[in-house]
Please model this.
Amino acid sequence: MDWLTRSFRGVGEVPLQEDSRNHHPAPSSASLDSQEAADWRQTLERRHWEMTFKLQALSLQYEQLDNMQREQAVQLEKLTAELQESIAERRELASQLEESHEAASSLSLENQSLREAIRTLMAAIGTTPSTLCRLQDKADGTADQQCGYCGIRFEGEGRLSADRVSNASTADSSGLAGSVYEGPMTR
Model:
């Protein structure tokens, strides 16, 4: 039983037993004397004031409960609006996350495609960079194998100095064909 039901319990109910001092049987018309009539009237008035006081207390309690219910309804509306806003924000974030995953996947595929294109080009080029450098050096009249265009020194067929970069047709550890990089290039 909730507290509201307990608060209203007893209103309108007639108690089965009362104190002996409060219990006066209704006087009969034959035995009605002035003292008994006055006692009866006082008892009725006292019961009337008690019931009036209880009714006023219950009315105040009802008003308080009604005000609390209205305040809670306003708070519930605010919380509902905040919850709906939060749900909408969460959906938007989930959508953005999905879009960023799709973009990352697309970039990964594009990166893989570019790597494949680089591998194909590097395999097709072979030792062409060293040949071009030698031809340019011969045209410039230099005796060593330094590329006149880029200033990189070649030590052999398609190799840069100190074996740091090679132009092999086999795939390196990263899966790229040719152009194996092992450290900083010397210039």
User: Anything to note?
Assistant: The radius of gyration is 51 Å. Residues 18 and 24 are 10 Å apart (CA to CA).
